[in-house]
From TrEMBL:
<dbReference type="InterPro" id="IPR036909">
    <property type="entry name" value="Cyt_c-like_dom_sf"/>
</dbReference>
<feature type="repeat" description="WD">
    <location>
        <begin position="80"/>
        <end position="121"/>
    </location>
</feature>
<keyword id="KW-0349">Heme</keyword>
<keyword id="KW-0677">Repeat</keyword>
<feature type="region of interest" description="Disordered">
    <location>
        <begin position="440"/>
        <end position="462"/>
    </location>
</feature>
<keyword id="KW-0479">Metal-binding</keyword>
<dbReference type="InterPro" id="IPR036322">
    <property type="entry name" value="WD40_repeat_dom_sf"/>
</dbReference>
<keyword id="KW-0732">Signal</keyword>
<dbReference type="InterPro" id="IPR001680">
    <property type="entry name" value="WD40_rpt"/>
</dbReference>
<feature type="signal peptide">
    <location>
        <begin position="1"/>
        <end position="29"/>
    </location>
</feature>
<dbReference type="Pfam" id="PF00400">
    <property type="entry name" value="WD40"/>
</dbReference>
<feature type="repeat" description="WD">
    <location>
        <begin position="164"/>
        <end position="205"/>
    </location>
</feature>
<keyword id="KW-0249">Electron transport</keyword>
<dbReference type="GO" id="GO:0009055">
    <property type="term" value="F:electron transfer activity"/>
</dbReference>
<keyword id="KW-0853">WD repeat</keyword>
<dbReference type="InterPro" id="IPR002327">
    <property type="entry name" value="Cyt_c_1A/1B"/>
</dbReference>
<protein>
    <submittedName>
        <fullName>Cytochrome C</fullName>
    </submittedName>
</protein>
Length: 462
């Protein structure tokens, strides 16, 4: 049974079968943290945060979302499992009873938060889905795909509404106009485009920035459309005229995330360098600046009162910055796959290639992959408490120093084709041997459990 780390698990409920995969919801009781402390429950990087009143939704590389109660004290309500790869984006449907998510598996999932069940699988993207937006009236969801399309979905019929084609590269961001009549999209081709929601008609190219655009945020009160780009730009464009109305002081590295406070008075931006900047929208002045330890800021969301900010990235925790307090946003030491500096070359390779998905301890820690504890001498797909993909479940590979090195030399797509393991190849034989040696030392020698036909439902399959 999967456990939400630092919570007492109170049950796993099988809620349905979709595409021959069991969908599980792990409910957790207990407080995750005191106010201002991290939300701790994921087993991998946090790619998105959404907040609706007293509730939050976090999306993670560990294939799951967690539904949180933030007040009076933070508590994990449920861990939602249904994606077959990392989850990049999540959004509440107005009213707080449903949510929509998108992931590296190309799936757009609709969840009933009241029941804790998967309500619908919306399929059609031929690549990862990296952003989700829901219209203010709750009638439509939009998804941004790396197949070069954005898609509109009806949340009434739970069906495809329109495919939006026009970008010449990955689509990275989607955002609805406040009245829900228009959708804005942005992509790696550097363009921001406008579409009519009613029928999916392309209306205009709002702006051509030249550099890839990573994030969009609609500003209230006709203040325009904020965007963040790979060249460090954060700027505001008038979506009707295409005129840049304001450009903030540039960052040194790409800006990856934007958030607008609920009262519309502040704009926050998170960068690849770990920077977090907050501006006052009435006068465009920088009012706060902080840093997230351990790598890029992938996700940002203001709390309901607008006085604090949640932010996430490579660490498995979602940090909470009280902006009425110290200037520094995140000071905790990196953990759970965040970048580390290690003297041991094998440990460096493990941090770079393995730590996001795997632990070296008996517990899998809600990671996307199984624990590597006692890896050597174990048959692939044999841990009794992990639901493997069919490719690994039926494999005859025994993990030895030779087979592990071959996995990284040739890549999982060659050694175990059909598995969900990310494509990783290490061309340097010295680095490969350092990694294998480190794993051999740290995983406590051979002792493989026998193959099981009854895997736990609390972890995603690989």
């Amino acid at each position: 049974m999967a456990r939400c780390r630092e919570h007492r698990p109170i049950g796993v409920v099988i809620v349905g079968l979709c595409a021959a995969a069991a969908i599980a919801v792990v409910a957790c009781a207990g407080t995750a943290a005191r106010a201002g402390e991290p939300l701790d429950g994921h087993g991998g990087p946090v790619g998105d945060i959404a907040i609706s009143g007293r509730f939050a939704l976090t999306a993670s590389f560990d294939y799951s979302l967690i539904h949180w109660l933030l007040e009076p004290e933070p508590m994990a309500l449920a861990r939602l499992i249904g994606h077959e790869a990392g989850v990049n984006a999540g959004a509440f449907v107005p009213g707080g009873k449903r949510a929509v998510s998108g992931g590296d598996d190309g799936l757009v999932a609709v969840w009933s938060l009241e029941r804790g069940t998967l309500a619908a699988r919306l399929e059609g993207h031929r690549g990862r889905v990296v952003d989700i937006a829901v219209s203010p009236d709750g009638r439509h969801a939009a998804s941004a795909g790396w197949d070069g399309t954005a898609r509109l979905w009806s949340l009434q019929t739970l069906a495809l509404h329109a495919v939006l084609k026009g970008h010449t590269d990955h689509v990275n961001a989607v955002a609805f106009q406040p009245d829900g009549a228009r959708l804005y999209t942005a992509g790696a081709d550097g363009t921001i485009r406008a579409w009519r929601v009613r029928d999916g008609t392309a209306l205009s190219t709002v702006h051509d920035h030249g550099w890839g655009v990573n994030a969009l945020a609609v500003l209230p009160g006709d203040r325009g459309l904020a965007f963040a780009a790979t060249d460090g730009t954060v700027a505001v464009v008038d979506p009707d005229t295409g005129t840049l109305t304001h450009e903030f002081a540039g960052a040194e590295r790409p800006v990856l995330a934007l958030a607008v406070s609920p009262d519309g008075t502040r704009l926050a931006a998170g960068g690849a360098d770990g920077s977090i900047r907050v501006w006052s929208l009435p006068d465009w002045k920088l009012v706060r600046e902080g840093w997230q330890a351990g790598g890029p800021v992938w996700s940002l969301a203001f709390a309901a009162d607008g006085e604090s900010l949640y932010h996430g990235g490579m660490d498995a925790r979602t940090f909470h910055w009280d902006m009425t307090g110290p200037e520094v946003a995140g000071t905790a030491a990196p953990r759970d796959g965040a970048p580390v500096v290690a003297a041991d070359p094998g440990e460096r390779q493990f941090a770079r290639h393995c730590a996001i998905c795997h632990t070296l301890t008996p517990s899998g820690g809600n990671r996307a992959g199984p624990t590597l504890y006692r890896l050597f001498g174990r048959r692939a797909g044999s841990l009794p408490d992990y639901p493997y993909s069919p490719a690994l479940d039926s494999s005859d590979i025994v993990w030895t120093e030779e087979t592990v090195e071959r996995l990284f030399a040739e890549g999982p797509h060659k050694v175990v084709p059909g598995s969900k393991m990310p494509l990783q190849r290490m061309g340097d034989p010295v680095a490969r041997r350092a990694l294998v040696g480190y794993l051999k030392r740290m995983t406590d020698g051979p002792a493989g459990p026998s193959r099981s036909t009854s895997p736990s439902l609390g972890e995603p399959a690989r």
